Amino acid sequence: MSGLGAPTPPLPDDSPLGLQSFAVLLRRMNGEFNRIAHEFAHAQGLHLTDVQALIAILDAEAEAPGEPMTPSRLRRQLNLTSGAVTACLDRLEKAGHVRRVRAADDRRVVHLHYEEAARALARESFRPLARAADAARRHFSAEELRAVARFLAEMNQELALSR
């Protein structure tokens, strides 16, 4: 096993740890995530982009508490036009999922907040995903989970760099 941060030598594609095997597993997991997101979007009368926006707002709150998402940051993150973000936020606000609040120190700045009732609804809708993740985590040691978390963080970083 490689040490922390040490690169792993390339493995053959047909290896269970090879690129092809990882790609298949990641696609399957992504497909399941998308299925759940589509079901939530359909049940709420939303577009999939709206669900992606909700996730971005939720993640922004988790990553930097006290630093809410703004429409311009959301536009950049989702790679949408200003008009598309406005339409998305209009739908989310009308459906009761988000609230736009002007910043107290600069009224030109708009902060996006995930409404608590909508957050509870999403939590309930995505509970099967949380249960599955928790059940899967129980099959691994803390050390193995640290390695998985490191891999996912690196994967996200590499994907962000490829944008």
How does this model look, in words?
The model has no long low-confidence stretch (mean pLDDT 89). The chain has helices spanning 19-44, 48-63, 71-78, 82-94, 116-125, 127-137, 142-161, and strands at residues 98-102, 110-114. With 163 residues, it is mainly alpha-helical.
Strand content: 5-15%
What value does the average pLDDT take?
89
Helix/strand structural class: mainly alpha
What is the share of helical residues?
55-70%
* Main beta sheet: 2 strands, antiparallel
Number of strands: 2
Large-scale geometry:
globular
Q: How many whole angstroms does the radius of gyration measure?
A: 19 Å
User: What is the topology, as strand order, of the major beta sheet?
Assistant: 1-2
The number of distinct helices, counting runs of at least 4 residues, comes to 7
- What string, H for helix and E for strand, traces the elements in order? HHHHEEHHH
Observed structural traits:
163 residues; mainly alpha; two-stranded antiparallel ribbon; 7 helices; 2 strands; 64% helix; globular
Short structural summary:
This protein is mainly alpha-helical and 163 residues long.
Please render the helix and strand layout as text.
Blueprint: H1 19-44, H2 48-63, H3 71-78, H4 82-94, E1 98-102, E2 110-114, H5 116-125, H6 127-137, H7 142-161
Antiparallel strand pairs: 1-2
